[in-house]
Amino acid sequence: MVIAPIAGAVFDKIGARPLIVPGLLMQAAGFGWIVYLAAGSSGYASYVAPFVIAGVGISMAIPCVSAAGLNAVAPESLGQAAGVMNTMQQFGAVFGIAIVTTVFNAHGSLAAAPTITSGYRPALAVSAGLSVLGAAAALGIRRAARAGTAGPGHPRTMDASRQDQPSGASLLG
Question: What is the pTM of this model?
Fold first, then answer.
């Protein structure tokens, strides 16, 4: 509620990559710190900073992913792009939960506190790894040209005869 609107305003000035990459790396760092803390006996207060770091990071990344995806298509394709992005975000969330749950079940169970921790730590470590992979993938995002400055072939300036070409190509460098 605090970071996402700020990230949206900054996105307009600097683009998606400078916010998504560090945001996902912050999330990974926060998760890694939590994994480290879970190895010993830490009080609740020691978890505040890593949760804040992870939360700030993902709050920077999520709105920028959506904005970058929607900025990569022509205005007449925004409805379809929004539908595809929503579907893919839902699929990614479900797939991520399935992966982390599988890792948890392979290493622990809900039977007792020690078995919860033995499953929780590798599951959260995998989550941190997935965040790092997301940051690496986000390195391929390039800044879209501003309206009015886009050249021929850019999705925002494509004429009707060229609309059969992929419009998402402007996301990758």
Answer: 0.77
